Amino acid sequence: xxxTVGKNETSGDDGGEPELVVKCSVLGGFSESDxxxxxxxxxxxxxxxxxxxxxxxxxxxxxxxxxxxxxxxxDPHLEWMMNMLLDIARNEKSPPPLLHLGFKFLYIIxxxxxxxxxxxxxxxxxxxxxxxxxxxxxxxxxxxxxxxTRYMLLLWLSMTCLIPFDxxxxxGHLDSVSGQAREPTMDRILAIVKTYLTVTDSCxxxxxxxxSKFMTRPDVKKKHLADFLDWSLTTIMQADEKLMIxxxxxxxxxxxxxxxxxxxxxxxFLQHAPTVLQCLDQKHLLESNHEMLRKLGVKLIQRLGLTxxxxxLAKWRYQRGSRSLAANxxxxxxxxxxxxxxxxxxxxxxxxxDYDIPEEVETVIEQLLVGLKDTETIVRWSAAKxxxxxxxxxxxxxxxxxxxxxxxxxxxxxxxNAWHGGCLALAELGRRGLLLPSxxxxxxxxxxxxLTYDEKRGACSVGSNVRDAACYVCWAFARAYEPPxxxxxxxxxxxxxxxxxxFDRSVNCRRAASAAFQENVGRQGTFPHGIDIVTTADYFAxxxxxxxxxxxxxxxxxxxxxxxxxxxxLIAMKINHWNDEIRDLATKALHNLTPxxxxxxxxxxxxxxxxxxxxDLHGRHGAILAFAxxxxxxxxxxxxxxxxxxxxxxxxxxxxxxxxxxxxxxxKQYRSFSGxxxxxxxxxxIEKMSLSKMPLKDDPVIExxxxxxxxxxxxxxxxxxxxxxxxxxxxxxxxxxxxEEYYQxxxxxxxxxxxxxxxxxxxxxxxSPEVLTRSSxxxxxxxxxxxxxxxxLQQILESLGGACVxxxxxxxxxxxxxxxxxxxxxxCVKVGVSAQGTPDSVICSxxxxxxxxxxxxxxxxYTTDSRxxxxxxxxxAAMTSLMEVTLLVVSTAPELLAPDLVERMMxxxxxxxxxxxxxxxxxxxxxxxxxxHCSDPAVPxxxxxxxxxxxFPVETGTTLNWNASSHAFPYITQLLGLxxxxxxxxxxxxxxxxxxxxxxxxxxxxxxxxHLKGIQQDSTALGHFGDALLKVxxxxxxxxxxxxxxxxxxxxxxxxxxxxVFATQEDHPFCVDLLALCKEEIKRSMSMQKLPSCIAVFCxxxxxxxxxxxxxxxxxxxxxxxxxxAVRKETAGQMYEMLLTYDDVVDAEVxxxxxxxxxxxxxxxxxxxxxxxRNQLSDMxxxxxxxxxxxxxx
Length: 1194
What we know:
GO terms for molecular function: beta-tubulin binding; GTPase activator activity. The chain is an all-alpha fold. The protein is built from 60 helices and six strands. It has a two-stranded antiparallel ribbon. A two-stranded antiparallel sheet has the order 3-4. Helix 14 runs antiparallel to helix 15 and helix 41 runs antiparallel to helix 42. The N terminus is likely disordered.
C-alpha cells in the first residue's frame, strides 16, 4: 500500500487553513492473474536454466509482495494457483529442479497469504497420504537449497492427517514384495516429526504444526501420545542450552508441545499436564539466557494453565455491547429501555464456582507473573495474553487476586520491564472484560503514572515502551467500558493523554496517545472538546516535536479543561528533563502558554526561583530558563495594557532573580560541565530581563551580568565543541539587550564610559590568538545597538575590515573572518544609512568604501585546511552581507552605490553561482536573483540588466533549482555572452568543469559546450571567449586551485574541436599564447595532478596549423625525457593517440615507425636509454632534438 501525504495550498474564499490531502494507492483486485497463470505454466520450460529460473522466481516474488498489505485479494485465485503447482508435484516425470521450483512458488504464496489459511486448500484425501509421505521421505532434511519443498510438504502432510480413517487401514499387507516388513504409516509420520523438530531451518515450525494435527488423531493418541510426550520431555531435560544444536532441539520440542496443548482435547491432555509442568519447573526455562526459549516456555505454561481449567467463560466478567459501533447504535435505537449490558449476571455466580481449582494453576499464574517482568518484549506480551486467558476461566475471587498481583508490578521498586508487562496485562484484562469497573479507581492512577514514566539510565532514559503500553491500555479501556463507568476518570485520562500527545519525547508515544485519545472520543463521547482536538492533534501533526510543543499545545491549552494540567506537567516533569532539547522546548512552551493563564503562571514564579539554586543541574538549568521565558511573556501581556512588569510578577521575585548570579558564582557553578549549561541559561535570563525592562538601572547586578557575558566570550575555547555555538549566541543576545536597556544615559545616547570600555575591549579581542575570542568579539561588535556605535563607527568598521583579511598569520582564523563579515552587515543595519550623515555615526559616502571593500575581498577567500574548503564559510557570509547592505543602501540612499562597486559585487556573486559546491552555488544564485529582481527601488548600475532579466525572469526566483547542476548551469553559461560577466562566469565554470564531482562536471561541461557550439560561426564572440580564457589562465598562473581544473577544461574544449575556426589559421595568437602559458605553468613542476592534464592540452594544440605545431611537438618531446617515468609513459600514450587522430603531423612513410617506437619502448628505463629513443623520434618528426640546459651557478 502506498500512502502519500501532502498539503493543498489552495484554500477557499473563507481563508481557511491549507487542507491536508492524503492519497492512498489501494489495490482493487488481483490484476496479475493472467500473468501469474502464464508464468506457472511456463515453469517446465524454464526450470532447467538457472538464469531463467532466477528471473521467473524474482518476477513472481515481486508480484506477490505487492499484496502483503491486502492478502485477501488473492483468495479467489489461491485454488487454481495451488492446483497448477501441485500438478507438477504429482507428476512422476517432473525433474527435481522443476519440483522444487513449484514448491518454492507455493511457499511464496503461503508467506503472503499466511500458512494457516493457505494450508487448508491442500487436498487431503486418502490417496494423498502415501504420495506426500513418500515424497517427503525422499528429501534430505539437511539440504539448505530446497527447504521450501520440505516446508510445504510438511504442511500438506498435516492436512492429510485430518482424514477420518484409522491410519492402520492404509497399511494393507505390511510384507513387501522383497519379503521385508514395511514400516507402518503411523510410525513413518512419527519418525518424520521427530526428525524435522530438530532441524535448523523453518521446517521446524511446520513440523510443530504437523504434530498438532497428527498427535490429536484418536488412533494416534492411543498408541503414541504418551510416548511422544515422554520423548519430548526427555529431550528437553537432556538438552544443554550452551550448545546451539540443543537450543534448536528445545525450540522445536517446545513449539510442538505448545501446539499440542493448544489444539488437543482437554480430557486427553489433562493427565499429562502436571508432568509437563513439573518438567518445565525443573528446567527453569524462565531463567534461560535465550529469549525465544523463555517465550516458548511462557506460551506452553499458559496452555497448561488452560488445560487445568475447564473451558468456560467467566459469567462475572464485564460485558459491553457489540464491538461494532454500528451494531451498538442500532441496538440502542431498537431497545432504548433495555438494561445495561455491562451488568453481571448475579444468578449464575454460584453455579460457576462449584468446581475446585487445581493447585497447579497457582504455579502457572506465578510463572506468568514472572514472565510479565521479563527483559524481552515478546516474553512479556506472551505472558500478558496468558494472564488474560487464564483469568477468564477463574472464579471472581481468584481472578481478583490475579489483578491485585498485576497491580503490584506498578511499584517504583520495579523495573521498566515490570511496568510494561503490567500495562500489557491490564490491557488484556480490560479487553476481555476481566477488569471490573470497581477496580478502575485503583487502576487509573497507575496508568496515569505509566503515561509519564521516564527513568534516567546513564546518558539516556528508559520508559518509552511503558508509555506506549499505557496508551494501549487507554485505547483498550475505551472499547471495553460503557461511558458511565469511565465518567469519573474522564478529566484525568483526557489530560494525561493530551499531555503525552504533545509533550512526549518519543514520536511513537505521541502518536499512540493521539490514537488512544481519538478512540476515547469516538467510543466514549465524553472527552471535553474531543472532536476539535482530534482534528488538530492528528497522526501527522504530532510527528514534529517542535510543532507539538510550540503550536498544538497552545491550541489545546486554549480549552480551560486542560490548561493547568499542561502547565503543571511542564513545570514538574519537563523543565528538569535530562534532555537539553526537551528542556528548551518546555520553557518556550511555557512562554507561549502564559497568555492562556497569566495569573497561574505568575503564581509559579516563586517555585521556579527556589529551583534556580537547586543541587540538580538539569532542574536548575530548566528553572532559570523557565523563569526568564515566563517573566518575558508576562511583561508583554502587561505592556499591552500599560502595566509595568513589577505589577505583573509576584512581590519578592525582583530581588530573588537578582541574587541568582551571585549564588551560582559563589558555588562555582559556572565552571566545567555545569558552566556549559549555567552560562547560556543566565545569559538567556539577562536577555529576557533586559527585554522586560526590569527597573535595574545603575543596580550593582548589572556589573555582575556584564562580567558574566565578557567572561563567557573569553572562555569559549575551554568549552566542548558541542555547546560553544549555543553559549556564544546566548551571550551575544544578552549583550545586545543589556546595552540597549541599561547603558543609555538618554534617548539614543550611550554612557561614554561603558561605550569606550566595551568598544575598546572587543576591538582588542579581534587580534586575540584564540579564534573563538576573535569570532565572539566580532559578533559582539556587530550586535551593539546604534547608541553604542555612534561616534565610534569608523573605528569599529576599520577593525572589522582588518579582521576580514587573511594575512599569513591569520589564515587559520576562518571562523573569525566569517563572523567579522557578518558583524559588518549587522552593524550597518543597526546604525542605518544616510547620504548626508557623518562617517562616525551612520553609513554614508565617507565610509561606504570601508563597508564594501572587506566584503568584496572576502568573496575571494578560498582558504583550505584539514576540514576542506573552510573559506566557503567566509564567502557565504560575504554574499549574505553584501545582499543585506546593498538592499539597505538602495532603500535609503541608492546614490551611494558607485557603478564600479555594483559591477564588482555582481561579478563576484556570478562567479560563486558558477562554482562547484551545490550549497554555495544555490546561495549565490539566491542572492544574485534577489538583487536583480529588487524593484522598490531597483539596484542601480547593474550592467546588462535587460539581458539578465530575459535570462532570469522573475519566476525563476521560485522555479530555478540552483542546487541541481542540471538546472543551474544552462542558465549560468548564458552569462558568457555578456561582456561584463564573461570573465567571472568563466572563472567559476573552470572549477566546475574541471572538478571531481561527476554530476557537476557532466552538466557544467554540457552547458559550456552548448554555448561554444552556438558561437562557432561567430569568430568575434569566439575570440572574446578565447581572450577571457587566456586572461583567466594568466591571472591564475601556478594557482593550483584554478590552473589544474583549467587545464582539464582546456583538454575537454580542445578534444571537442571547439576552436576549429582558429585551427585553420596559421599560428593563431590564441594557440601561441596558450602554449606559452602552459609551458610557464609546468615549468619545474613535478605535480602528477598538473602534468598529465598539460600533456593532454599539448596534444590538443597539435590541431593548430603553422610553425606553432613544431613548438608543441618540441614541448612534448621534452616531456618524453622527463625525470619522472610516469610522466614519460603518460606522454608516450598521449602522443600515440595524437598521431592516430592527427595523421598529418608526421610524414606517412615514418608514421608507422614513430607509432611503433612510442608503443614498444619501455619508458621506465633509465634516462640515458630513454632519451636515445626520444631523439630518434625527434628525427622522425623533423623537430630539433631537445638539448640539456646547464644550470646557472648560484
